[in-house]
């Protein structure tokens, strides 16, 4: 299927590896130009070289830094001639017991996983509407749909973003001008973050890493972990010309893990 995004410009956050990188790859292979952001300059430049190899005709720019910082956001926005597609993404806050979290822990989580995406959206959607095309995808978490007790910081901050998007995405001045905003909720994808979590569980429980990893895998009805490539392909479709009638949705990609009907 021709997605109709050849020549479009995309800003993809946290794109040096994992799900963000998968999204950048899929967009570039569909002919989009991308500005990619991540904290590590070295990993970011390696990913940029990889993307240029995938599609030599695409323009690939990099902006290293923490996207939660005002100066990094401004640099990322300025690096893009125009932003037609925005993919917000950031690593989640650490797990733990809410009794141990300070007020600052909560503020930091909200800043990274709620306020930062909102600031990026605020900076881009009106210009998208004026041009008659825009796609915003927020990479959140399956924990928004089925909260995980030890991920309270993430549950809270990402749910706040979800509620905000539910209202914003339905504004006629946006969706009526072909600007859609949706959230992608990943479950267990085979990323560095998942592997790090599994290693931490193995170390604290005395179990082997392989045993913990296999236990995770068997808990997924599909009996496997998702890949960044398939996540990126789904994201690219949501960014397509054909996806203009879908907005304000929270779409689970979790291999069937969520047990509910709704």
Automatic annotation (TrEMBL):
Domain of life of the organism encoding this protein: Bacteria
Pfam family, one: adh_short_C2
Entry similarity comment: Belongs to the short-chain dehydrogenases/reductases (SDR) family.
UniProt-recorded name of the protein: Oxidoreductase, short-chain dehydrogenase/reductase family protein
């Amino acid at each position: 299927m021709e997605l109709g995004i050849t020549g479009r410009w995309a800003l993809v956050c946290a794109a040096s590896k994992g799900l963000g990188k998968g999204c950048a790859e899929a967009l570039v292979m569909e002919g989009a130009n991308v500005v990619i952001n991540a904290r590590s300059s070295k990993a970011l430049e390696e990913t940029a070289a990889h993307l240029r190899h995938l599609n030599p005709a695409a323009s690939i720019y990099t902006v290293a830094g923490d996207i939660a910082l005002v100066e990094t956001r401004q640099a990322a926005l300025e690096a893009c001639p125009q932003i037609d597609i925005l993919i917000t993404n950031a690593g989640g806050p650490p797990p733990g017991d809410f009794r141990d979290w300070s007020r600052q822990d909560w503020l930091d989580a909200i800043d990274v996983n709620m306020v930062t995406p909102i600031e990026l959206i605020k900076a881009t959607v009106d210009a998208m509407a004026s041009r008659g095309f825009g796609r915003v995808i927020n990479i959140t978490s399956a924990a928004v749909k089925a909260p995980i007790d030890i991920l309270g910081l993430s549950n809270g901050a990402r749910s706040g973003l979800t509620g905000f998007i539910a209202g914003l995405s339905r504004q006629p001045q946006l969706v009526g001008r072909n600007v859609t905003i949706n959230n992608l909720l990943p479950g267990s994808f085979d990323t560095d973050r998942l592997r790090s979590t599994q290693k931490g569980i193995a170390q604290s429980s005395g179990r082997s890493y392989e045993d913990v990893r296999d236990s995770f895998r068997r808990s997924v009805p599909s009996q496997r972990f998702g890949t960044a490539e398939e996540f990126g392909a789904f994201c690219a479709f949501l960014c397509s010309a054909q996806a203009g009638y879908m907005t304000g949705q929270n779409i689970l990609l979790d291999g069937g893990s969520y047990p509910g009907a709704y």
